[in-house]
Design goal:
Shape: globular
Distance between the termini: 38 Å
Bound molecules: NADP nicotinamide-adenine-dinucleotide phosphate
Number of helices: 8
Radius of gyration: 18 Å
Helix content: 40-55%
Length: 259
């Protein structure tokens, strides 16, 4: 029997990139998956792919930056599948750039999605997770540990998410809820490729060269693929990963040089 048979999962930002790969892998492992993001067409596409692979999936289109939407998402999963075992807080999109040109609004927007949506989704899901000894996995980012000058928003948001993970993991010990975080480094998704393509265009060099330079400068083994992160998430929430609690797991090819 698949590892996650009978489990019910939410994946925020499950329509594209890392979230899509996580939704696919959780479904492959037997979980029913509710995915959420804004674009209904992208959601339908991913749900269709999962169903074609004989998985169970449904979606809800909403903007997770709005305070009321995380509770709607949790309700949608309960209404559709009858419970909740796994929450993957993955949706995130922070603006990069020169600190002096970044506005308050851009900082607030970065926190609204990645930090506050994770807090609100976890809060709304908690009683259900507590009832079924469920799991939370926050997909955060290596920049939370080692932020750079052009990543002031992302670094700050990610560090806050890491702190939130640790704090809630302690509550999870009392309540029987597993809480952990995964920190990707550069992963080959649309979001990441847009930055790399822009750099290639600006410098008049090939995309492959920019990727090779990023790998070299970041002192990493290679760029990640969305599936790398997905396999780790499925492992954490499986029986084999049940001892992980409050773990902030770097899966970034070795970019984090701190202890
Ligand atoms: N890719 C990387 O290299 C990398 C590295 C470190 C950390 N991460 C983190 O990993 C997570 C996933 O990144 P990714 O590269 O897979 O991103 P992505 O390809 O841009 O996908 C982002 C997902 O989030 C959804 N989303 C964006 N804004 C939303 C909103 N306001 N409300 C609801 N859903 C929203 C998107 O769908 P819609 O746009 O249709 O809403 C999409 O499904 C993010 O938290 C990111 O910070 C990524």
């Amino acid at each position: 029997m698949p590892e996650l048979s009978g489990k019910i999962a939410i994946v925020t930002g499950g329509s594209r990139g890392i979230g899509r790969a996580i939704a696919h892998d959780l479904a492959k492992e037997g979980a029913a998956v509710m995915i959420a993001s804004r674009d209904p067409a992208a959601l339908e596409q991913t749900v269709g792919e999962i169903k074609n692979a004989r998985g169970r999936a449904a979606s809800i289109a909403l903007d997770l930056r709005l305070p009321e939407t995380p509770a709607k998402l949790v309700k949608a999963a309960i209404d559709e599948f009858g419970g909740l075992d796994i929450v993957v807080n993955n949706a995130g999109a922070t603006q990069r750039g020169d600190f002096l040109s970044l506005t308050d609004e851009q900082f607030i927007d970065g926190f609204a999605l990645k930090y506050y949506a994770a807090v609100r989704t976890t809060r709304a899901a908690w009683p259900h997770l507590k009832a079924r000894h469920g799991s939370v996995v926050n997909v955060i980012g290596a920049g939370g540990r080692t932020p750079g000058a052009h990543f002031a928003i992302g670094g700050s948001v990610n560090a806050a998410c890491l702190a939130f993970t640790k704090a809630i993991a302690e509550l999870g010990i009392a309540d029987g809820v597993q809480v952990n975080a995964v920190n990707p480094g550069p992963v080959r998704t649309d979001r990441q490729m847009v930055w790399l393509e822009e750099a290639a265009k600006k410098e008049g060099i090939k995309l492959d060269e920019v990727i090779a330079r990023t790998v070299k400068n970041s002192k990493i083994t290679r760029m990640g693929e969305p599936e790398d992160i997905a396999y780790l998430v499925s492992f954490i929430v499986s029986k084999k990963g049940s001892l992980f609690q409050g773990s902030l797991i770097d899966m970034e090819g070795g970019s984090t040089k701190t202890i």
